[in-house]
Fold:
Amino acid sequence: TCSNPLAIISIENFNPLYTYIIQPNVNVTLNVVNGEITAPSGNYTIYATNGICNSISSQFVIDEQPATPGVPMIGSIQQPSCSSEYGQFSILNFNDQLVYSIIPNVGVSISDMGVVTAPAGIYQVFALNSVGCQSSVIEVVLNPQPSIPESIELTQPSLPTCAHPYGVLQVINFNNDYDYIISPSTGVTLDLLGNITAPPGSYTIYAS
Structure:
């Protein structure tokens, strides 16, 4: 089997009064109570003897142990982004003769080239072959989608005056955890309370 390199075969007409000769006999055992033979893959010959006469020989074949798939090798992980709730990762040693299980599988897809697309979560990935042998499991983590900052709310600007060449306005929903990008930025200042001071002009502002 996938997990055991030895097979079991029974002698249907087993007689504990006989001695059974099995060739080759490397790693071969015979249960002298029930006649069960345990042996690795190979071609075997067996006969019984009562010490005087030998039976006709019989042959049996034990197949090779099924190969266990290699553990999936995960390439670079593309995490969910501001614009997409899905991340991606590639199975570098992808083999289209194997079946790949990804648990949990809600919202998960895998391409013919082994590229997995999935929402945020912790995933267990393993491969199965046609006889049911399973590879070791590897874990992949996709982070939650980053939150998008809310739209910026601004006060009405206090316009430049004869005595002061700058206008002043405030970001009402200012958040110290965000970076605020103001363009153009020449002569523009933004303090820790969200107050913007700027010379005359048209500006664009967004939070990141």
